[in-house]
Design goal:
The structure holds two protein chains of two kinds. Chain A has helices spanning 41-55, 83-95, 135-145, 169-181, 186-207, 224-234, 247-257, 265-269; strands at 8-14, 18-25, 28-36, 64-68, 79-80, 101-105, 110-115, 121-127, 214-217, 238-239. By secondary structure, chain A is an alpha/beta fold. Chain A folds into two domains: 8-80 and 247-269, ATPase, nucleotide binding domain (Nucleotidyltransferase, domain 5); 97-241, Nucleotidyltransferase, domain 5 (2-Layer Sandwich). Chain A has a five-stranded mixed sheet. The longest helix of chain A has 22 residues, at 186-207. Chain B has a domain at 20-155: Rossmann fold, CATH 3.40.50.11890. Chain B is globular. Classes of the chains: A alpha/beta, B alpha/beta. Chain A binds chain B through residues 70, 73, 81-85, 120-124, 126, 128-129, 255, 261-266, 268, and chain B through 186-187, 235-239, 261-262, 323, 353, 365, 367-368, 370-372, 374-375, 378-379, 381-382. The complex binds iron/sulfur cluster (2 copies). Residues 37-39, 104-105, 246, 271, 298, 300, 302 of chain B line the site of one iron/sulfur cluster (SF4).
């Protein structure tokens, strides 16, 4: 069976924790893969490529590949684009053209991207300096509470969240220990931790001038409780998708379907 | 084609020679005066027969030492300046007879009080508004500086010498401005990192003509090569203007992040770029008055109000056909951080995006900077 190479496009999103890949054929999503990045992002990229091509069951030679994410420069690819632009493109594909605000909370970082009406990135904010408000923060807190991250999705919404004053992982840890010792309800505390994350995210979104529709992506978006707390704070519906962890890779794959990458600067100056 | 790469290599190789040349000058009996800021009137120091040198202030190395005496949440430039003195690791500080400071931002002027214990530090009282009275008071301050130099260095500053040095310093500014203006070309003939290298090279020239000639030669060669069709920078690069806190070695990471991710810096509005050099001293005015006008006119964020900086930025955006503005803020620099809001407004009015990057001298954020700058450049079109 002969395959026209031009119709295949691959996006690789090599993050600090997980590496995700998406394969498109004629612009349609045909395969996905996710692996742990491990120590070697270049190797993670190679493995992802192999998994994706294997999964379509043919010896695909060279689709166009665009890499994104923290490891994008280490991975073999035809183009490299930051996760901000890829995420924006991917989120629009997943959620439709109405998306204006993207909240992404991953394992190590969080970001907010504001899109204009045409879907261009209008502004963005990244928190990548500390673990506050990220998946890692919640992971650490889950350990402190003796539960797992998935429990943060099934808390009763009738409980009043117990306020947490510190978002720094180190300080929050001792605060949680103290509160548990004082007999504060574990579930209320868990909700309080999630609400602290929601509050931080709200602050970031408001700084960019929060516009609906709001979508929530990244590993942490799978927490039903966090999403509910966000909706309450923003007084707006917050959309999530099971595929949202692939938003970056999907955006990269969509970029790979384009024949040329960057336009020459001068061309844009030509009258429209 | 001229071999411009060779010129850059030579400039880069000349940087470490600076301290040796100052040591030799001192051994030959010359006086050396240490300076930190763009407000220091080099002309007066030179007219007194001394060599003004720019003291080290842009490395993370002495910061820990500086923090032994200074609070941590102070701008890294101030902590580094002081730390260099304290650890005696800035060769220029080591060789200088006195230091000149100005009452610019709060952190700096208070730091000078401590620095004075390490080396005699003369602080000029800088007015922070531009008005007739302020110019008069600044003119008086410059005269006081002249008197102080005459007394401590045992020399006399003649009007003739002052006029001569004003002409020479103007010549230096003109040469640098000519180089800067090359980047109005689309694409520019050199990168921002190369511009920055030339700035550093110029600083270790200590006013010597040979060094200025090297810059002249570079400008000429770049222009002639460009006319002959040489393109050293791709025309796909987005044209970026950097503004904000002073540039320097440890923030080169930001320039790197911009230029490794699809951008090219066409102008630095900062100190270490256009800000201190775009206006000349009026040679027709009486010298002290002329100096007062020029220096008080530097649009530093310590000035209030400082609309002139925004005007300069607006002009640069137009003249250099910029696609975006990167607002560089050193952690804990309040004055530039507050002006960020106005910088964003100015960029918006010019119809181009702007991003504020807050950083310090440590190199721990290079990865984040790369993503941040990359995404910013992509906002101008992928
Ligand atoms: S930014 Fe202001 S205080 Fe800093 S060096 Fe320039 S003129 Fe001096
Ligand atoms: S960068 Fe800001 S805080 Fe630092 S010395 Fe200059 S004006 Fe002062």
């Amino acid at each position: 069976m002969s395959i026209s190479l031009a119709s295949w496009a691959m996006g690789l999103d090599v993050g600090s924790v997980a590496a995700k890949g998406v394969l498109l054929r004629d612009g349609e999503w045909v395969a996905r893969a996710m692996i742990a990045t491990g120590w070697d992002p270049a190797e993670a990229g190679r493995r992802l490529r192999a998994e994706l091509t294997d999964s379509v069951g043919m010896d695909l030679e060279l689709p166009r590949v665009v890499a994104t994410g923290y490891g994008r420069n280490a991975v073999e690819a035809n183009g490299r684009v930051t996760e901000i632009s890829c995420h924006a493109l991917g989120a629009r594909r997943l959620f439709g053209d109405g998306v204006r605000t993207i909240l992404d909370i991953g394992g190590q970082d969080s970001k907010v991207i504001a899109l204009d009406r045409s879907g261009n990135v209008a502004n963005f904010l990244m928190n990548d300096k500390c673990a506050a408000g990220t998946g890692r923060f919640l992971q650490n807190m889950a350990v402190m509470l003796g539960c797992s991250l998935s429990d943060f999705s099934s808390l009763s919404e009738d409980l009043e969240p117990h306020g947490i004053s510190s978002m720094c992982t180190v300080f929050a840890e001792s605060e949680v220990v103290g509160l548990l010792a004082r007999g504060v309800d574990k579930n209320a505390l868990a909700l309080g931790l999630l609400d602290a994350v929601a509050s931080r995210a709200e602050g970031m979104m408001r700084r960019l001038g929060l516009q609906p529709e709001v979508v929530f992506t990244g590993g942490v978006s799978q927490s039903r409780n966090l999403r509910a707390l966000l909706e309450k704070r923003l007084n707006l519906p917050v959309r999530v998708s099971e595929d949202s962890q692939y938003a970056g890779a999907l955006g990269a794959a969509l970029l790979a379907t384009r024949k040329t990458t960057r336009r020459r600067r001068r061309d844009e100056d030509a009258p429209k | 084609m001229h071999d411009v790469e060779k010129i850059f290599e030579k400039m880069s190789a000349a940087l470490p020679e600076g301290p040796v040349r100052i040591k030799e000058a001192v051994e030959a009996g010359r006086k050396v005066v240490g300076c930190y800021c763009a407000f220091t009137p080099y002309e007066v120091i030179r007219a007194a027969g001394a060599i003004p040198v720019s003291l080290c202030s842009t490395s993370e190395k002495p910061i820990a030492a500086g923090e032994e005496h200074l609070p941590r949440n102070l701008c890294p430039l101030i902590k580094a300046s002081y730390g260099f003195g304290l650890t005696d690791t800035c060769p220029y500080f080591h060789f200088c007879d006195l230091v000149i400071g100005e009452t610019t931002c709060d952190g700096k002027k208070k730091m000078y009080e401590l620095l004075d214990r390490l080396r005699p530090t003369y602080v000029m009282q800088l007015p922070q508004i531009v008005s007739e009275e302020a110019v008069e008071s600044w003119r008086h301050e410059i005269k006081l500086l002249a008197r102080h130099l005459e007394e401590t260095l045992g020399t006399a500053i003649t009007e003739e010498a002052l006029r001569r040095e004003i002409r020479w310093r103007n010549e230096e500014r003109k040469v640098m401005n000519e180089l800067y203006e090359l980047s109005r070309l689309c694409p520019p003939p050199l990168s921002g990192r190369e511009l920055h290298l030339v700035n550093e090279f110029f600083k270790v020239g200590f006013g010597e003509e040979a060094y200025l000639n090297k810059v002249r030669e570079l400008t000429r060669c770049l222009r002639e090569n460009y006319e002959a069709g040489q393109r050293r920078v791709s025309d796909e690069k987005r044209r970026i203007i950097v503004t904000g806190c002073p540039t320097g070695k440890s923030v080169e990471k930001v320039f790197h992040a911009i230029e490794e991710n699809g951008g090219v810096i066409v102008a630095f509005e900062n100190c270490g770029g256009v800000k201190p050099s775009y206006e000349l001293v009026d040679e027709a005015l009486p010298p002290y008055e002329a100096l007062a006008h020029k220096y008080l006119g530097i649009p530093c964020s310590c000035m209030s109000p400082n609309g002139k900086r925004l005007k300069l930025l607006e002009d640069l955006v137009a003249e250099y056909e910029a696609d975006g503005v990167v607002d560089l803020i050193l952690q804990a620099c309040h004055t530039y951080a507050v002006e960020s809001f106005l910088v964003h407004e100015t960029a918006r009015a010019s119809g181009i995006p702007c991003i504020t990057v807050e950083t310090d001298y440590y190199q721990g954020d290079v990865e984040q900077l790369s993503t941040r700058m990359g995404a910013f450049v992509e906002m101008m079109g992928i």
